[in-house]
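WARN retry 2 of 3 for item q-0093 after timeout on previous attempt; input resubmitted unchanged.
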Amino acid sequence: MKKEIQSRAEIKLLVDSFYNKVNADELLGPVFAHVDWPHHLPIMYNFWSSVLLGEMSYSGNPMAKHLNLAIGKEHFARWLELFTATVDEHFEGYNANEAKNRAHTVAQLFQYRMGLLEK
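OK item q-0093 returned
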């Protein structure tokens, strides 16, 4: 049975499940091959806990980390596809919808700032 995202444990399930898909993905896996996962995953737990649960545990500049990556629109489309599928696989309700909406907003903003979208 699917549940609402209401705790850090659910955030951890979302993030871990999502990045397992990313790492196994033919398009995205190579982009993330250099990532120090033991360092990166707790940052992602903090990010999504701050966004969805109102925690104030995240601080950082995610845009700066992505500017130098060799990625295009197709990478963002696949990232969103996998993220949405992961949310839908495990969760339902307000925060699940909010997670998908926020991921879409982040992807749009990053693409715009990286010059991948028309101004």
